[in-house]
Every structure is written in structure tokens, then in C-alpha cells.
């Protein structure tokens, strides 16, 4: 039975200046899993807290739970004035976003001439290079807005995990925190017209590797200790997806996948079983899904701006699919940047420099403002501000408020498509070839 949902809404406002269980069993499991995720107290303990002074670690793209929440400390002083706390040259170029674990920064780069992929580790205190590992690879074709190193690493207490595509094959590797290889595997072929850029995610002892591609698609669960395949979920093939899986912690964990062929899919990360699915995306997915209260929010789109945002209800599952709460059309929906939810607002940072603030429960527009530039990075929240970095390398900071206000701007001096990271009282910005650090105010 098709579940009724709201139509696609055109919310134009003036822009401010400036193989598994049978069907019944799966539905019962889906309802139980959703109830645990939505109502279980353990979820609230796992999600990032906006009232925390500053995250201790930033384990994946957009930090814990992929939420992009950087705590309540503002930047120390004005972003527009003064020197950076430190700046370092990277051993290669690329668009991968930094991750942080216990005072150590991990970053992926590539040598654009030899195609060597590079994983480097730096100290959060001063940016000093601790170690680097080089892996030979092929000089594969990629989109002009992509790079040889756009996939971000993910880190836990035992290891840092990274992936790259070379010669139509995907490679995944784990290294300990001193840069020693623990294992390296190839989970299968990988073919994508625009190159590789998806990032893996971790749930306890499982590394979730998305392989929604132009060739035979799947999602694979690997043992983080050995790289051994624990499960493989075959997927229909449409256009390559670049979305990072969203892991929702709870008594019954759930991982959310996003792709054009399957829409939004909830799986059990322990065995890869599908809990529910809602086919809802007519175009490619690049941004990653996020959790907003009882809703899951994700987008699809294309280069011409024909984008769509879909919000589904995690707590309303019928006939194996969640109800759609609302949809937002190309006038506000981003394509590449992932949406950001703060305590009271949902920010949709458009690829072409228009930011829309909406009510997270209803999708009603509160304001729109033009910041200018083009954006591939995703916004994050720090203190009472929301910030993002344009493709030209301009950091733009907005007030987290019910009105449009540009608080500050500052150029990194070269292009950037990486999402900032926040950990240990510092915010990190990555341009193509440099890493910048700025201090957050101390209490």
C-alpha cells in the first residue's frame, strides 16, 4: 500500500541581500529497531550534544553520527583577523575531510602526477607530521569537481580505516595509530563515471563500505580486526552514490544507506539485513543522510540543480517503508552539501551559495540568504554559528538564528571542497594542499 505524503513544495521566498527473513519478520524487526532508535535512552547518549564545550574526537566525515555538531565554544577572536593557530603543507592534494582521534589528525591526499594515495597523521596541537603511508594506484578519470582523494577516513580506538579506487577496483585498508598496516583487502570491482568519493562508516566491530556504483553494486560489512567479509548486501545499480552511511546507535543499531536505486534503506549493521526501505530518489545521491529527531533527511540531485530533499518518519513504518513527512524541491534542496540540524533549525546550504533555514519538523521556510560562491563542502555548527567553506576556499560563518546574518568571512587562499572538523578545542579547515587550525575559546 502506498503511504500518502505531502507533495513537493515550492517554498520560494525573497533572498536576503548580503537474503534474509520473510516479509512479516522483517516488518516486525523494523518496527522494533525503530522503536529502540527513536525512544531508547541509549541513542540520546550517543548523539553529539550541542551543549558539550568541544568534541574530544571527530571520528568520521562530519563528526560523531555525521551530525556536524562542534560544541558550544565559539572561535577565539574574530575569524577575519589574526593568524591561524597553525598551518601545514600536506604531502599531496585532494578533497578528503580530516578526522581526529585523541589529539591525532588523519587525512587522505594524492600525488596528482604518480597517482599515489597518501594517508598522513598530524598532531592536533601543532600540525606536525607524525607519519605517512603511500599506496601505489592508477591515474583514474574523475569529475572536475572530484579528486583522486575525496573519500574521507574513519577512525576508532583501534585503527584508522581508509579506501580508494584504482584500476576499476576498490581497496580498503586498516592501520594502527602508529601507521602500521593491520590488513588490506579489495571488496570487489568499482566503476564510476565521476571517480570514487564515498566514505566508509564504523559500527563497533563492523566497517560498512558502500559500493553503489555504475557496475554491480553492493554494500559490504568487513570485520574491523581482520578485513574479513562478514556480510554483503547486493544492490540494484543506478547512478553511483557518494553518500556516507549513517549509523544510529541504540539497543538495536541501524545503519541508513542512501542511493538513487534504493532511496533510503535501513539495515542491521550486524548482518546486513534490510529492515525497511523507501524508494524516493529520482536522481543521484551525493550528500549523506542525517537524523533530525524522529526524521531522516536526505537529498538527491544533479549538476543542473534539479534537486529534491526527502524527510521520512523513522517511527511510522507500514508495509516495510517509512512514511514521508515532507519533500522540498530544487528551490531549497542542496545536491552536494549535506544538510545540518541544530537544536531548533535545519540548514540547507545550497551548492550555488543560497542558504535556506527551515523548520526541521515541517519543512516550512524561515529565511533564505545568499552568501555567494559555490559549495561542495557541508556546513557544521560551532557555538552559536553555522559555517561552511566555498569551493574557492572562502570560509563563511552565519548566525544560528531565525534571521539571516553573515558573521564573518575569511579566505584559505586556495580551493577547498573538504568539510571542516572540530576536536580538542580546535577547528580544522582543509584546502587542496594545506591544513589550517583555529582555536576555539576556552571556558
Give a brief rundown of this model:
The chain is mainly β. Helix content is 5%, strand content 40%. The protein contains two helices and 33 strands.
Estimate the mean pLDDT confidence: 87
What count of structural domains? Answer: 1
Oligomeric state of the chains in view:
single chain
Q: Within the largest sheet, what's the order of strands?
A: 1-22-21-20-19
Spatial separation of the terminal alpha carbons = 54 Å
**Principal-axes shape call:** globular
Instruction: Count every helix, treating DSSP H or I runs of 4 or more residues as helices.
Output: 2
Descriptive overview:
The structure is a single chain. With 443 residues, this protein is mainly β. The protein has a single domain (8-18, 21-439), classed as YVTN repeat-like/Quinoprotein amine dehydrogenase (Methylamine Dehydrogenase, Chain H, 7 Propeller). The protein contains two helices and 33 strands. The strands form eight sheets. The protein has a five-stranded mixed sheet. A four-stranded antiparallel sheet has the order 2-33-32-31, with no helix packed on it. Strands 3-4-5-6 form a four-stranded antiparallel sheet, with no helix packed on it. Strand 5 and strand 6 form a beta hairpin. The longest helix has 17 residues, at 23-39. It is globular and about 50 Å long.
